[in-house]
Write a structure and sequence with these properties.
The chain is of the alpha+beta class. The protein has helices spanning 30-42, 67-73, 95-111, 131-135; strands at 84-91, 115-121, 139-146.
């Protein structure tokens, strides 16, 4: 294609695809989730699929921290909303490797002067995974890290 208006072919490149949905008024609605899932369906052709026909590149949604939900399901006390962060941590399933990696992770969090509030094992449904994905599926945990006094909003 040739350069025309704001379009320049030098900026053309391939990527996996991304979509963004938001509510311009900052309202949290279920419709945002439905719209985001629709984007994922429409971008299915951009993802790779392995020979088993089930194992793909993966996709996901990034949403606000669901404070009320976490307050119910965590077995430790959480501070007020926006006073903590949640990290998704992908760990080995082998017990000794899991414990070793988790200890390194905790040490580094503490080295940064942050306060670990607790860990939560993420429930997963592996029944739809292909054999290739199932063979390398990690253990997924969430770590909750409290805001220190040195950190502003």
């Amino acid at each position: 294609m040739k350069e025309q208006g704001l379009y320049s072919p030098e900026f053309e490149h391939e990527n996996c695809g991304a979509g963004f949905i938001c509510n311009l008024k900052g309202e949290k609605t279920n419709q945002i989730i439905h719209d985001a899932l629709e984007i994922l369906v429409k971008l299915e052709h951009r993802g790779g699929v392995s020979s088993d026909g089930k194992t793909g590149d993966g996709a996901g949604l990034l949403i606000d921290i669901p404070h009320e939900y976490f307050s119910r399901v965590c077995d430790f006390k959480l501070p007020n909303a926006r006073e903590y962060a949640v990290g998704m941590v992908f760990l080995p399933k082998t017990e000794n490797q899991y414990v070793f990696c988790k200890a390194i992770f905790e040490k580094e969090i503490k080295n940064q002067g942050l306060n670990i509030l607790g860990w939560r094992e993420v429930p997963v449904d592996s029944s739809h995974l292909g054999q290739i994905a199932l063979a390398s599926e990690p253990k997924i945990d969430q770590i909750f890290v409290g805001k220190t006094q040195e950190i502003d909003e």
